[in-house]
## 1
Amino acid sequence: MWSASYDILIVGAGIAGSALAHALSAAATARGRPLKICLLERSLAEPDRIVGELLQPGGIMALKKLGLESCVEGIDAIPTYGYCVMLDGKPVHIPYPEGYEGRAFHHGRFIQALRAKAKEAACVEVIEATVSELIECPLSGRILGVRATRKEEGAVEKEAFFADLTVVADGCFSNFRNQVMGKAALTPETKGHFVGLILEDATLPIPKHGTVSLVEGHGPVLLYQIGTHDTRILVDVKNPVPSDLKGHILTNIIPHLPASLHLPAQKAVEKDRLRRMPNSFLPPSEQGKRTKEGVILLGDSWNMRHPLTGGGMTVAFNDVVLLRDMLLDVKDLADWTQISHLLHKWHWARKPLASTVNILSVALYDLFSAQDPYLEVLRTGCFKYFELGGNCVREPVSLLAGIEQAPFMLFRHFFTVALYALWILFTSPRQVGVANGKPVYARPRPDEYPFLAVKSLRVFWTAVVVFMPLLWQELRY
């Protein structure tokens, strides 16, 4: 059995793994302390996924700190300048603050650009191999490295790869999460699936903006341009998944999209294979004291949020920025006391951004996929809150974009939305009937106020039930 030794071993050459390999190498070399790094990946072929295709402005800022901003160039990436939210056919424009932009692209092209930077980095060895197990010391239980089989013709024997520190970044379907986390492991909560297709030459309501279409009775539909001729559409499908997905999309979803998207969407459904990804939420449990020594988790293997807000890569790159700087200050990577202290600092240093993105992604999804009358009131209030413009748009979108890192700013806006929704409930005209084939609207009458007051209490309690458990999860772990 062959074996090799490194300073740091990284399992998974995806978003986080590739970025960390390059960032550590570049920074360590610049400090005159080069690190020997091994990056293991099951397949170095271009991946084909339906998520991880929108990088928020905060992610672009982190890329620049890592020296990886060139990875969004030369891959037909499309600048994005904000969002357009559609409710009942009515749009509201939610632009990013002036001077900020995100990028949307084919996931595989971006990954290959990141891997190319990792391969170019000094003292980084990128190996195509399938990791089958973590090597554990029989006496101390410490993780010493991994066993893997190279992807070479005729290669069947497992090789041992040893390192002072092993970083597992093998994604949302991690094979090693429970082993690393032990009793601190949490179970991902799946909130449904995104079904993905690519539309050809589609015209979005506002070009170069992500479009969120809120379909009554169903989850949100997310669209953004990922290439000169390609637009990604992600349809939220709740559990249990319909047996006839194509029929469900054609009948229940496409008719409620903007008219310019009907024909491209119909063609895509009829021509393409439907692919789906679980929408999972996994709070970050602190690593170090209660987890396996010698190994840490990074990226979706450790922390996931709903993909609706496109914040996953932004969190991952920010995590790499922080981890890179902290690891370089460690004198001995094999000293778990130092690493454990570092992980505690890292856990709380990442909280302002990670917790903001995590909470916002799930809370916004709950509002946008409203399935009961109280959530519908909150959804309407949220839409009308955005219509107010000014700080009612600028600050929330700065949180979503990863520009602002402030969980309590999110708290303030979320409950301001809840209170504004109650104001709308009492003052806004709502449909009371139909006359001559047209809907008739009227404001609530004074005799309806007692009923609305009771409903208001239920609506506000619903807002508390949506937001506070998410905040508690982020604070307690």
Note: The first helix runs from residue 15 to 30.
## 2
Amino acid sequence: AGSPSLTQSRHSLHLGDCAAALARYGRERRQDLGLAAERLRLARRHLGRITGHVGAEDVLDIIFRDFCVGK
């Protein structure tokens, strides 16, 4: 019924990014455990942006992006 709302579009993008990170995890988990762990972290981060769970890394990203720290 009409165009998706901004929230639905944003959720769709984060869900797609989460799925892509999980697919990369599936390919990399047997070759490079560190890289595979990073893919899981990215997947969790994208899900957190949908559910509203924000981690310390997200808060730091906002601080350094929105405030001129050290400039």
Note: The chain has a mean pLDDT of 82.
## 3
Amino acid sequence: MDPPKLFGVSPFPHQMKPSAMSKRKLKESSAESAESISQVQKILRERFCHHCAAGKLFGMEQQYRHLLELLKRTTVHGESNSALIIGPRGSGKTTLLNHVLKDLREMKEVREDLLEVHLNGLLQTNDKVALKEITRQLQLENVVGDKVFGSFAENLAFLLEALRKGNRTSSCPILFVLDEFDLFVHHKNQTLLYNLFDISQSAQTPVTVIGLTCRQDILELLEKRVKSRFSHRQIYLMNSFDFKQYIKIFKKQLSLPAEFPDESFAEKWNNNIQHLSEDKTVQDVLQNLFHHSKDLRSLHLLLMLAVSAVTVHHPLLTAADLQEASRQHSTDSKANIVHGLSVLEICLIIAMKHLNEVYDGEPFNFQMVYNEFQKFIQRKAHSMYNFEKPVVMKAFEHLLQLELVQPLERPSARAQREYVLMKLLLDSSQIMDALQVYPNCPTDVKQWAASSLSWL
């Protein structure tokens, strides 16, 4: 019998349906965890993609102080300077510069009117394009208008004159950042570099030129007149940390900051990262990556793949996630292409593999591959379909398009396609690994690939 009701309300509130309350609580907690997960994804992805200059610099504190001091002298005292940041790709040249610029903008004594011009050797391929980009970034298109200048130097001097106000210390300091600096060296007469370094040496507008390059011999590439105007300040970045420090970097890169909204989740996450860093499996994954490539860009890519696996139902990272990320990170793109080939194309690749083994890596042509394939067909006529020669030729041309096979030299118009010498761009281990995971691969084909006596 139901309990009595007073004015339509149950006198026993504790007898409310428990399922409704627990469902609501469950919904709220899942909404909170979903919010926390999306926050984690946002913070870590920004960190790994270098979109923000937050976080810590690893192993470059001395270079950071040097560059910050250099740029402070330009922005505060109106000094002109030039410097080169040299280091291998992925060593943190751009990250270092972004950190310095971020901290510089936050300083009280630094005037807000520091102008930045960012040029890239891959984009600004000649001085004319570079000058247009400088004009655009300094927002001087209206000032220049339809003026015609006699030389590059005249044009650049006019741009800087337009920005000048009063004396040297009250003038607007300008920072020129030249990414892929070594590509600017190949511009005609090195006019851009000459003029920028010339201005940074003379008592005109305060200008600092920072070049980023991975060429160690960059000074040898400069012309004498350019070299004499360069300050010869060089900041070297080398990944000099050992594996213990690498593990610390791994922890710091995955840890959530103290100001994370959900403190209990952040604590749980950070404790989990601490346990992961002590896990033998994780250390093996990191050791492999460390020996392959010490740069932090590779580590960030691995962690990005691992963090992508985090969901509401799987809120914490596991060693298995990192193993899977490592497998994806180190996948062979050419072996991946093999997975999408037809059985006929696979057979042609195996025929080329056997030709390589028999003739010790000597080049081959289509006719040799076709003959090898025919031998296999004759032995296995009961299980394999015999294709017409033009069909086999079409499959061979598809492999050529996919760049799994490459001609030794550019074929002439008169050369017969069947006799153009080729080489295979896959090695035996790649082919065998790809065959292991090839879906529904015929047994005869697998056995043919494994046997090295195909010519008998």
Note: The CA atoms of residues 208 and 424 lie 50 Å apart.
## 4
Amino acid sequence: MWGFQGGSRLLATMLRAPRVPRAGVTSKPPEHPISAGEQAIALAAMFTCFLAPTAWVLAHVFNTLTKACTLHNPLS
């Protein structure tokens, strides 16, 4: 019975109105619409910023591993 009372109290707490009122944020249409070309350039720039460093690291992982192996084992 105690579990049911605890669960009902938890449910009542969740359904109660929030103490802090929510902000009245509204959105409007953009003042200057962005063209498809500008969107394509922005998307390409974002992909380049995120993927170029990752690609460089992945391309050089093998070189780093072979250098590390030759430093620890100079006879091979």
Note: Residues 67 and 74 are 10 Å apart (CA to CA).
